[in-house]
Amino acid sequence: MTIQNVSAVQADDETALRDAVKRTSVAWSAGDAYAFAAVFTEDTKVVISGDYYRGRGAVDAYMTAAFSGPAKGTNVVSDPVEISYLGGGAALIITEGGILAPGEAAVPPERALRATWVFNKYGEEWLISTYHSSPITKH
Fold first, then answer.
1. Half-sphere exposure of residue 61, counting CA atoms within 13 Å on the CB side?
2. Does 26 map to a domain?
3. Over the stretch 35-68, which tens digit does the pLDDT of each residue have?
4. What total of structural domains would you count in the chain?
5. Which of 56, 71, 121, 136 is most buried, judged by most C-beta within 10 A?
6. 72 CB neighbour count, 10 Å cutoff
7. pLDDT tens digits for range 75-127
8. Burial degree of 73 (CB within 10 A; 0-12, 13-18, 19+)
9. Residues with Cβ < 8 Å from 70, sequence gap 6 or more?
10. Over the Cα atoms of the chain, what is R_g?
């Protein structure tokens, strides 16, 4: 997919932002809620499946339950389609992807998601301060 507004993001920052998104997918594949939550800020705000979670601990608890139940053995795809630098050490990424059941190579339409990620930079590390996902109804 084509990335828009890349010129506004430093090349090193773009790589680090992509790596942060990838870290969530790697942690998901491993079923590691702690590693997944570690990519989020302590005071993160997350809206997922219509529910609101506040704080890294809440993300960890949510993912621990998910990996023990409905998300066990699944993978997640989060492909950046737009990256924008917002200034002041903040960036926005829009991703498309979704949940892959065991053995699936492509996300079926009923599990396709579009997400908005707001990152803040702490030293050299980008962490997710706000995340929201919703089903993709039109491609």
1. 8
2. yes
3. 999 999 999 999 998 899 999 999 999 999 999 9
4. 1
5. 56
6. 10
7. 999 999 999 999 889 999 999 999 999 999 999 999 999 999 999 999 889 99
8. exposed
9. none
10. 14
Assigned token pair, 89: 């050490």
Cβ neighbours of residue 72 closer than 8 Å, sequence gap 6 or more: 31, 66
> Helix, strand, coil % (nearest 5) of the chain?
30, 45, 25
Q: What CATH number does the domain containing 87 carry?
A: 3.10.450.50
CA atoms of 129 and 124, how far apart (whole Å): 15
Per-residue HEC secondary structure of 52-111 comes to EEECHHHHHHHHHHHHHCCCCCCEEEEEEEEEEEEECCEEEEEEEEEEECCCCCCCCHHH
Paired tokens of 20: 């942060």
Q: Phi-psi region for residue 55, left (φ > 0), alpha (ψ -120 to 50) or beta?
A: left
Parent domain of 91:
6-135
Q: What tokens appear for 80 in the block? A: 């950046």
